[in-house]
């Protein structure tokens, strides 16, 4: 049976270490769309940071979706319509900022088409490099940002992020969803937001079956997506916990792992 959707995380899954889709993977994904398969992107990135890849894969031509902000926003890419959206309230954002200040972590969010940061860190420029969005640094991000935000991130060394996630973020459990995307990014979303939740909501809206979907991922924020769909695939470079939950483990993002396994699952040659 043809899957209802084939869903891809972006960073370290669909994209190589050079932050691009390889020609082999791109050509294969264009080929399967021509055969009627529907592709979807699901990323922690902001919507603006996903559009170039969506365009390169011609998702608008074939009619599909992008799920940004770890599932906080879902867009019908063909007509640029937001079909689902959950934001972090201004009050909760201010609380996140206080938490980051208390623990000496850079805090980042998205506001008026820009990445806005307070603080400094060696990884402070990574999000701008990945997404291509402009970034500004402010002295008081609580004063600068005056509305709800799609999500917020704490940026710190890997060991600190792991410690914060393991011991400190339970204080947000009643109000927010918290996950790790990259080892130095601790992400805060509205309660109930996740890639898996976005997939389930889309399936209900568009009368699709999650059991008849394939999803690819590599990191902690991909776990519930891998567990939600009928066929979860971990990249060769994925975290061990993702590999343990997936039905299949393919080659790495730098070895065209996506077409390698899809050629077997779909019986469509590379």
Automatic annotation (TrEMBL):
Q: Which GO terms describe its molecular function?
A: magnesium ion binding; phosphatase activity
Alphabetical UniProt keywords: Hydrolase
- Give the enzyme's EC designation: 3.1.3.-
Gene3D superfamilies in alphabetical order: 3.30.1240.10, HAD superfamily/HAD-like (3.40.50.1000)
A Pfam family it matches: Hydrolase_3
| UniProt-listed CDD domains | HAD_Pase (cd07516)
Give GO cellular component annotations, separated by semicolons: cytosol
Checking InterPro entries in the record gives:
Cof, HAD-like_sf, HAD-SF_hydro_IIB, HAD_sf
Report what the protein is called.
Cof family hydrolase
């Amino acid at each position: 049976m043809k899957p209802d959707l084939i869903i891809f995380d972006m960073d370290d899954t669909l994209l190589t270490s050079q932050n691009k889709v390889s020609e082999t993977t791109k050509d294969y994904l264009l080929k399967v769309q021509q055969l009627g398969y529907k592709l979807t992107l699901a990323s922690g990135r902001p919507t603006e940071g996903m559009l170039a890849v969506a365009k390169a894969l011609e998702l608008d031509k074939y009619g599909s979706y992008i799920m940004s902000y770890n599932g906080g926003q879902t867009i019908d890419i063909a007509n640029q319509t937001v079909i689902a959206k959950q934001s972090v309230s201004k009050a909760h954002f201010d609380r996140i900022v206080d938490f980051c200040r208390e623990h000496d972590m850079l805090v980042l969010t998205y506001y008026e088409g820009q990445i806005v940061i307070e603080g400094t860190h060696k990884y402070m420029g990574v999000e701008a490099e990945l997404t291509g969005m402009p970034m500004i640094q402010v002295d008081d991000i609580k004063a600068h940002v005056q509305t709800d935000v799609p999500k917020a991130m704490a940026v710190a060394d890997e060991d600190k992020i792991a410690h914060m996630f393991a011991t400190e973020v339970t204080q947000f459990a009643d109000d927010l969803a918290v996950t790790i995307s990259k080892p130095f990014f601790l992400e805060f979303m509205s309660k109930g937001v996740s890639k898996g939740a976005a997939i389930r909501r889309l399936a209900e809206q568009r009368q699709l079956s999650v059991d008849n979907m394939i999803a690819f991922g590599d990191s902690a924020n991909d776990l519930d997506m891998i567990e939600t769909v009928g066929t979860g695939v971990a990249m060769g470079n994925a975290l061990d916990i993702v590999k343990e939950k997936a039905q299949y483990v393919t080659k790495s993002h730098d070895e065209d792992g996506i077409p390698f396994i899809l050629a077997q699952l779909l019986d469509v040659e590379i």
